[in-house]
From TrEMBL:
The keyword Chaperone does not apply. Catalyzes the synthesis of activated sulfate. This is Adenylyl-sulfate kinase. It comes from Laccaria bicolor (strain S238N-H82 / ATCC MYA-4686). It comes from the Eukaryota. Belongs to the APS kinase family. Keywords: Amino-acid biosynthesis, ATP-binding, Cysteine biosynthesis, Kinase, Nucleotide-binding, Transferase. Its EC number is 2.7.1.25. NCBIfam families: apsK, PRK03846.1. SUPFAM superfamilies: P-loop containing nucleoside triphosphate hydrolases (SSF52540). It is an enzyme of class 2 (transferase).
Length: 201
C-alpha cells in the first residue's frame, strides 16, 4: 500500500501529448494458450506499425520473465503478479503515446479485467485480442516442446494441460489462428484500431 505518496501531475496534458506526438496511446492485449500465436502476431504487428512510422513496442511474456519478472514463477499468485505488473507497464507505455502490444498467456479473467480497469481509469484504450487455437492444434505445433514436457510431467502447472485457461468472454477481437494467416491477423487488428480512431495512417 502506498502511504505518504502524492501523485505528481505533469505539465503536459494527455490531449496535448497526443497533439504533439501526432499519435494516441493504446494497449493491444493478446491472450491465448501457449503456441496459439501471440508472439508471432505481436512481432508481425509491431513490424507493420513501425513501418507505418508508428511508435510501437512489444512486451512479450518470455522476454519480460527474463528481466523485470524474473523473480516470478507459474503458480497462480505469481501469474497474478506477472500480469498485474504487465498491466501497469503497458499502461505506462500507452500513456506515453505508444502502441503497446502485450503477448502473455494471461490465463485468468480477473487478471485481465484488472489490466483493463487500470487503462480505463486512465482513459486509455484497451483492446483485448483472443488469440485462439484448439488445444489439439497448439499441441501439434509445440514450437518450444513445452506441451511434450508438460504431458511427461516435467513442467507443472502448464496452461491447458495442468493449469486453467479462462477464455475471454467479450474480447474486442477474436482471431482463430488455425483458420487465419498471420498477415490477416495483422490486418484485422490494424483495421480495428483505425475504425475506433486509435490509429490514423
Ligand atoms: N496463423 C497463425 N498465427 C500465428 N502463429 C501461427 C499461425 N499458424 C502457425 N503458427 C505457428 O504457431 C506457433 C505460435 O508460436 P508463438 O511463439 O507465437 O506462440 P505464443 O502464443 O507466443 O506462445 P507462448 O505463450 O508459449 O509464448 C509458431 O510456430 C507459428 O509459426
Ligand atoms: Mg510467446
Amino acid at each position: 500500500m502506498a502511504v505518504n505518496i502524492t501523485f505528481h501531475p505533469g505539465s503536459v496534458t494527455s490531449t496535448e501529448r497526443t497533439q504533439l506526438l501526432l499519435q494516441k496511446g493504446v494497449t493491444i492485449w493478446l491472450t491465448g494458450l501457449s503456441a496459439s500465436g501471440k508472439s508471432t502476431i505481436a512481432c508481425a504487428l509491431e513490424q507493420h506499425l513501425l513501418k507505418l512510422h508508428k511508435f510501437t513496442y512489444r512486451l512479450d511474456g518470455d522476454n519480460i520473465r527474463l528481466g523485470l519478472n524474473k523473480d516470478l514463477g507459474f503458480d497462480e499468485k505469481s501469474r497474478n503478479e506477472n500480469i498485474r505488473r504487465i498491466g501497469e507497464v503497458s499502461k505506462l507505455f500507452a500513456d506515453a503515446g505508444c502502441v503497446s502490444i502485450t503477448a502473455f498467456i494471461s490465463p485468468y479473467l480477473a487478471d485481465r479485467a484488472i489490466a483493463r480497469k487500470l487503462h480505463h481509469e486512465a482513459s486509455l484504450p484497451f483492446v483485448e485480442v483472443y488469440v485462439d487455437a484448439p488445444l489439439q492444434v497448439v499441441e501439434e505445433r509445440d514450437p518450444k516442446g513445452l506441451y511434450r514436457k508438460a504431458r511427461a510431467g516435467e513442467i507443472k502447472e502448464f496452461t491447458g494441460v495442468s493449469a486453467p485457461y479462462e477464455a475471454p468472454e467479450a474480447p474486442e477481437i477474436h482471431i482463430k489462428t488455425d483458420e487465419t494467416e498471420v498477415v490477416d491477423a495483422v490486418r484485422i487488428i490494424t483495421e480495428y484500431l483505425i475504425s475506433r480512431g486509435y490509429l490514423s495512417i
